[in-house]
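=== RUN LOG ===
request id: a7f3
mode: sequence -> structure
chains: 1
length: 469
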Amino acid sequence: MNKLLYFLLIFFLAFLSFGIGWLSHTSPKVVKKEKKISTLEKIKQTGVLNVVLLNAPSTYMIGTDGPQGFEYDLLKSYADNLGVELNVTAAHTVQEALELSKRSDIDITSASLAKTSSRKDIYNFGPSYFEVQEQVICNREMLRGSSFPRDVEGLAGLSIMVGADTSYVETINSLKKDGFEINAVVSSEYSTEELLEKVANHEIDCTIADSNIYSINFRYLPGIALAFSISPREQLAWILQKGAQDLEINMYAWLNDYNQKGKMTELKDHYYGYILFFDYYNAKMFYKRIKSRLPKYQKDFQEIAKRYDIPWTLLASVSYQESHWNPRAKSFTGVRGLMMLTKKTAKILGVKNRLNPKESIIGGTRHLKQMLKFIPKEIKGENRLKFALAAYNVGYGHIKDARKLARKLGLRDNVWSDLKIVLPLLSQKKYYRDLKYGYARGSEPVKYVESIYNYKDILEKLSEGLVTP
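=== RESULT ===
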């Protein structure tokens, strides 16, 4: 009996085991649903932020020191904040940028894109980072006649071209619906910058460009002129992938912090701060003298710049600001030569003949290097050169006073964009009476530095073949 029970028990256990196994193979399997990774998490995991950038001076280009441009610098700062690499795909027109934005591997598209109502229906815009106005830009020679437009009605009969898929097309179509006569060609071939060049060469009468694009290109194209603004203020914004809410929220928080820290002001100052100090006549004469005068001294600038580890374009720009590259220049105070040295300064620097171009360049360069040694180490990057140039112009004592005043006013004393706000105050008694070095015409070093950096930028673009004189 015990054996019979034993065999029955074994049979039962075997049958039970078979049944469980059969059920496990025949019953429907529960599939665990994988959690979809968010855009921000993907960027952090891969260590790469993939962006489309319009290849243009106002957004992104390769300069002598590598990639640069307002929008490039802004996105590079964001990538650095995330701790990832910035991977750029260049677009050459707005139309191309918008097409590239549809790719699934692209995280952000940045192409000076206005957040228009029609675009908002199609694209997912992230935070706004710049405010612009659309402006009608025409050939400057038209100012001599009666054809230069002063308002929308004045566009009738003029040859106008704008880029495809730009907000300018929307503006023109809206005006046409309102009954205005505008003969505009829409081109998918040319960028806004290329159209501005066509205007400068009078291949077309006018085009439309955002105010920031005009401001940057005016330096290189003195043949263009602002006619009038054709739109209200508009916000530029980045395009993000749809469903990238986490990335959008993160970007809003970062951009707010970037603004609060004064970084945005500093960046705008770097790219647009010179605008108030440059005019058509100045630009035209500078380009003329690049051809007629600079070739005589360029090799000296390059040789001496290499010896003292300073960009030759900076030395040449200082010299132009000082003397317009006239080796026999003389001011009413007695300063002379290409770098306009005083007798006292020339003697200290070992310059025997201020009218000798090479001696003058060496003396001016050594003087600038001395100013750089005075600049405290906490002043970093491009700010160091700008502080040194301001000291070269107004004296280091006044720079110390301006830094002290900046701290008193709650501004940053080691950033040029803040110091240039303070320097003009040195001519006001209520500020300078409590400062060690007293009165100074503080607006002069501001104009001096901004003008030099404007010339430097033009010379660099010319040497890279990006613009032609």
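=== NOTES ===
The CA atoms of residues 16 and 95 lie 69 Å apart.
The chain has three domains: 39-129+236-272, 134-231, 280-463.
=== END ===
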